[in-house]
Amino acid sequence: MYMCREIFFITLLKISIEFMDERKTEVKVGAIFFKNEETLELSFDAAFQEINNIKLFELHFVTFKRYIPIDDSYVLQQLTCELISNGVAAIFGPTSKASNDIVALIANSTGIPHLQYDWNIETTIEQLQLNHRMSVNVAPTLTAISKAYWDIIKINYDWKTFTIFYQSEQGLTRLQDLMGIHTVNKDAIKLKRITDYSQDIRVLWKEAAEALHEQRFILDCDPKSLVDLLNTAKDFKLLGPFKQWFLTHLDSHSSSLKLIYNEQFKANITGVRLKLNDLNPYERRKTRITLIDQIFGNQTMLPILMYDAVILYANAARNIIISLKEYQHPYKRCDLGRYGRSSWLVGRLIVKEMKELSEDDVEPLFKTENMKIDENGQRSVFNLEIYKPTVNEPLAIWKSDGLVTPIRVKQEFQATAVIPDFSQVRRTYIVVTHFEEPYFMLKADHENFRGMEKYEGYAVDLIQKLSELMDFEYDFMIVGGNGKFNQITKEWDGIIRKLIDHQAQIGISDLTITQLRRKYVDFTVPFMQLGISILFYKRDPEPKNMFAFLQPFAKEVWIYLILTQLIITLMFVFMARISNHEWENPHPTNLEPIELENKWYTSNSAWLMIGSIMQQGCDILPRGGPMRMLVGMWWFFALMILSTYTANLAAFLTSNKMQSTIKSLKDLIEQDYVKFGTFHGGSTSQFFSESNNTDYHKAWNQMKSFQPSAFTSSNKEGVERVRKGQGSYAFLMETTSLSYNIERDCHLQQIGHQIGEKHYGLAVPLGADYRTNLSVSLLQLSEKGELYKLKNKWWKNHNNTCNDNKEADLDGDELSIIELGGVFMVLGGGIVIAIVIGCCEFLWNVQRVAVEERVTPCEAFKAELIFALKFWIKRKPIRISSGSSTSQRSSRSTSRRSSGQSKQSKRSKISKRSKHSKRSHSRSHSVPKFSERN
């Protein structure tokens, strides 16, 4: 029973399906193909066959195909009318090989839907609305494609300079937005038509390599000629590392580029193609791959778009025809107007329906993603896939909203890739720089090294650390300087020139980031911050003189001062002897003295003169008016001399500590005895020339007016000019180089504060894709403190001997022991002289004692010295016993002393009497009047 029931239901199902097939409405469609368009024909047939196999589709399509051998408008018109006479409800084609739109015009007049699937030169919107109302094109419009390329090239890739190679006018139309939008630097865009070099394509690539100095190329050409073009470009190193190619033809992947791909193709080659709908993973796969499956698998644009055009029309026709009560077949004549008939109304409804359908409303699905037809019958909504045609690796997806979404490549794809991606191999960067301390220098013993090992410096260490982080190799290219901009030729030299010509990939040195340079090269994040300051010469301090206290007066002044002292002393003695008031009673208790005494002899007079000039005074003073007048004038003289000496001494002792009067840029521009300048053509001179600040602009005008020129050809020349000028020249330079030279030369100094703020960065060609990685690596080095360590290593002079001098300069007005050493020497000399005189007096007294006491000089010396060393004894006897003789000798010596003393006393009395008588006799004769006066 069960088997019979199953057979019954199967039979019933077959009968119902056959009945439904018989009820399907038959719709005729036509297509026009050129020769050698077999793939399009296969796609056309496969699409309708798939639709007819859908049992519940309710329409059955019958196809009519016509073939045109050449592009002839008359033949094309005949074939179109022939299809219409067969009652077709739609016409597909022809491709863009047709140079006219005769099919669209006939379809527009008859009301037959016209399906297109290939690019054509677009007409204006007015013409589309008037003569192409029945045409629907499922291929993206050239305007939309051009906008997509703009989004990819400018926004996503951030290309600022590139060269466009195009093969046809249609290809140039696809790139129109890259030249028409004003945000692109038009001077940086170069156009080259490939067909202009058809005789020898090598001329084109040679010009691109040597004259254009380009590393980014946009190539629009037929896929069939792509391999030959790239093979020839390879011979001119246009497919080496750091070169970037963008292929704009949507069928570039269908070329045989993968077959010739090898290690010489290290350029980053990318292309675009229409994004296809992802296959349903649960769909049953075919056991046998047919030819049409291979065609669709190759993702060739025209066959896929032919398939989508068929799906779009079939679903729109089904929706309209089944909604009608009765299907009215199209008219079978091209000349409807001659018989007074209007165009086919159903066809207009089908075209309107096609403009409203989306990819979710059709069965089966479109091959391409995001199918949408606008009101003019053009496809303005679609998705593009950015991929690598060399390894068929998808990279990103562009959508009509302008967003580019990267695709995460599956690890399975990377593991199973048959062809390696040679563009991802470890690169070798050419690092361009120039000799400049301490960035790039030759080692002291560079003759013992080869290659890059003979170089050292901050730049060498920095690029080494970056290569370790980014895993790349590098080699140095040495040029003459950072780069100057020629205002006449608008050309650069130095590092900037090499980067513009793409002969180097990284520029590293004391390269300041400026707006002018950023128009021609890109910069990474800064690796060093700096400013501008003034380099000036620092004179050596005057050698310290231990007799500096003599400097306030000249030698002749000191000589005149000593002579004046002697003359005034003698004059004072003479004036005192003739003055009555200076003669005094030697014995105040004797009211009637027989003689007077004058105490102003030479020693006392000299002591008064010295005490006055030393401001110490004296215990005796003159009493007479003339003497007081003389002393007063001497005090006035001593006061003036001492005050003058004190003031000049302070000035002379601190003169070598006086700093320069130039302490800022303002002081520099307000004087005229010190010239100043900058490195000609550098960022510092550009800063002053473009500044709106009054002082900076004034400084720039002064620098330009100096003769001979105050500008230099390098920083090194400027530093040397400061050294040789010894205070007559100042050099404005960046603080980093300035501090480096100050650390190594004690005769250089920085004056003034930092002017402005600048930054050093690594320079790369415009749009270099590795700039971001370099910036990230620099930030990592900064966060780890590596940049600080490098600067400390190359800027700090650990053997610097200028620190002691710097500390001495900071002592202010303090005087050193050297400058006051002469004072101590005078003091020591006086002490030594006093001691020598004291010793001589002591020895003389010892000799006198030995004679008087009749002892040996040795005994007398010993006795006197022992007594002198007994500091606690305050009284000294008249006679000092030697203590070494016997008692007899002692008694003998005592008797001798007593007898001698008695004799001496007698003699002294007699002598005193005789002297007194003589004095009285002389006084009676010589000073009778003076006695009477007193």
Alpha-carbon distance between the two ends: 188 Å
Counting H and I runs of at least 4 residues, what is the number of helices? 33
Q: Percent of residues in helical segments?
A: 40-55%
Shape-level CATH architecture of the domain at 24-140 and 289-375: 3-Layer(aba) Sandwich
Mean pLDDT: 81
Shape category: rod-shaped
How many individual β-strands? Answer: 30
Spatial strand arrangement across the major sheet: 7-6-8-9-10-13-14-15
Ranges where pLDDT stays below 50 over 5 or more residues in a row are 15-20, 182-186, 411-416, 806-812, 882-934
- The rounded Rg comes to 58 Å
- What would CATH call the homologous superfamily of the domain at 24-140 and 289-375? Response regulator
Structural class designation = alpha/beta
Keywords: Cell membrane, Disulfide bond, Glycoprotein, Ion channel, Ion transport, Ligand-gated ion channel, Membrane, Postsynaptic cell membrane, Receptor, Synapse, Transmembrane, Transmembrane helix, Transport
Site (Crucial to convey clamshell closure to channel opening): 662
Biased composition (Low complexity): 881-903
GO molecular function, one term: signaling receptor activity
